Amino acid sequence: MSVVAAAGLTKRFGDVTALDDVSFSLEENAIYGLLGRNGAGKTTLMQLITGQNTVTSGELRLFGEHPFENEQALMRVVFIKESQKYPSGYKVKHVLTMAGRLFPNWDEEFAQSLVDDFNLPRNRDVRKLSRGMTSALGVTVGLAARAELTFFDEPYLGLDAVARQLFYDRLLADYAAHPRTVVLSTHLIDEVADLIEHVLLLDKGKLLLDAPSEELRGEVMDATGPAAVVDEFAASRLVLHREQLGGTVRVTLRGSFDNAERLKAKKLGIDLEPVSLQQAVVRLTMERNAVR
Amino acid sequence: MNRILAVARLHTVVWWNQFIWPWLILFISLSANYLIFLSIDEAAPGKTSTGGLSSIYIVSAIAAAIAISQIFPFALGMGVTRRTFYLATALVNVTQALLYGVLLYILNLIEGGTDGFGIGLHFFRVPYVDVSNGLLQIAVYAAPLLFINFVTMFVAILFVRFGTNGLFATVAATILIFGLLAALISWQNWWGDIWHWLSTQHQISLLVGWPALVAAVAALGGMAAIRRTNA
């Protein structure tokens, strides 16, 4: 059974369509990258799955059930978001105490080790934490909750590079020991590219891409070489982007590239190399907008 | 039920805010009243009543507003359902009202036993609010707490759900309805009948019955309103 199954999922706020006929599924024990520009609908999608908001139309199942107001299903999910508000008077230790009571798989020892890793002051008022420390607290709760389905929505605003690396390391190590379904929503695509096993790309409320990241990496390539040969090579493929400098052209192509194709490119003097996940996402998003 | 108790802890985990502040403020109010009435020792008997007790009701209302405006969004973020959050909050409210009722009754007895803290002060034994029966006295203290907490929560839910405009629209609608009602009553010359009805109401009805009834209506209204509220 899928952890999450969505079919024709649509969410409107007044006359704004935040999600438009989105269908996908999230499977057990995988790390997903939920990518897209600001306003693409990422947060809305996570809010619907976690019962924070209601669906306008379409089908949505969380562990096979409707998520809205579903205690049993929601207890198996943790949703860490950048915009999380904390009550006044709550200190770091209070947030951890409550998380420990509310998440059934909470690992207190792991939580305490993360608090030490991130140098979080246990007795400080949460509302007085810096942006980065607030994010570190969210990350701590999200990891130690060990929920079967874990959402991180831009979890590291204000976190420095070292702390982010710490987060990736702890996430991977804990994921290896306690496999679960993790959804990372972020703009720092290159940083998480190695973590992500599957990419969901949203643009203007539409699901643009739903593919294993390995597959995507082999499908989107940069071809660089003399203009005439590159254009001929590109003719049978989807050109996402083209830039020319003198007689040299670089095109970003989408299609399948088997060994014969790669050999052919090499013989023609075309330099064929995979683009980064970030570049692939940028090109795919821009291409779609250009078509419109 | 276990889940409800766990969620109820959201309100009590910062016990200083939830429990100490209301009583600290009450005792400061008591101390101030004590000093004032100590200095005017020639005060006529029966004139040493004060309204200082109301502070605990005001602080309690503020806590109820915070429960909805701040703790509710946090609870939702932690995967708590609206229904469980509301039931847990209602449980805390009712428990707290009863506990405060008992504590206020104990203080009422102390005030009686010490002849008004030695200076004839009526802080807890306020006229009309002072009834002879112990259990009734607890209810007299507790019912207004339930009333003020559930009504505050209901208004706070409307605010979280509909924003500033929703809140003001509610206030405007309330004023309009009661204004029209008052106009109708004046026009029909019903005021006399209303005062007569109030004066024939039993003391306990006015102190316990009606506040508890309104509290129950507000509690049900809050439950209905929060089910579709997104923080």
UniProtKB/TrEMBL annotation, chain A:
All copies of domain ABC transporter, residue ranges: 4-229
UniProt superkingdom: Bacteria
UniProt KW keywords: ATP-binding, Nucleotide-binding, Transport
SMART domains (UniProt xref): AAA
A GO term for molecular function: ATP binding
Gene3D superfamilies (alphabetical): P-loop containing nucleotide triphosphate hydrolases
Statement: the UniProt record of this protein carries the keyword Lyase: no
Keyword check for Transport: yes
Pfam entry (one): ABC_tran
PANTHER family according to UniProt: ABC TRANSPORTER ATP-BINDING PROTEIN ALBC-RELATED
Name of the protein in question: ABC transporter ATP-binding protein
Organism per entry: Asanoa iriomotensis
Organism phylogeny: Bacteria, Bacillati, Actinomycetota, Actinomycetes, Micromonosporales
From TrEMBL, chain B:
Segments traversing the membrane: 20-40, 52-72, 84-107, 138-160, 167-187, 207-226
Protein keywords: Membrane, Transmembrane, Transmembrane helix
Coiled-coil zones: none
Record's keyword annotation contains Lipoprotein: no
The protein, known as: ABC transporter permease
